[in-house]
Hints:
179 residues; 8-stranded antiparallel beta barrel; single chain; alpha+beta
Amino acid sequence: MESLTRWMGRVASASVLGAAAIATAGLLQAPPAQAQVAYGSYVGVGGAVGLTNDAATGRGNNFSGVLAGRYRFLTMPISLRGQAFLFGGNFAVVPTVSYDVPLNWNLDAYLGAGVSFAGGGDTPSPVGNQTAFVLQPGVDYMFPNSNLVAFGNAIFAFDAYREGSNMAISVQGGVGIQF
């Protein structure tokens, strides 16, 4: 009985190893998958959280509404993006140009560069209260069989505060509709 059990264990082990070898060979011979940058331009709404304050005054804006948009060029991995920060005590607009990197069929990551144009009020927006150069890393997720998009990004605005001259950092997220 013990020899039968040992024999069955060896047969089972050999079967598993054989199946793994066949699967590995099949994967090595399969043509590589080509992911496409998540298709579509969109407009959306969401929220923003400012993570920094003016170093000199300590003033900052922690929460704001966001209107976001993306126009994707179909022949290039480049998009024009824009975000407007509203309802937080001060107004700011951040246009960027991004390089989009596909991660899978529905998800892409990007890095954008642009400028933030902030209103001149006393209370800074999540991206500061003066014009500044920005970097914007983020992701877009296109929901399958839908026109909905989830977006999330961060904005690093250099020298964004009038008084303190420090960097403003904000994080945004929301939902949009493709067109």
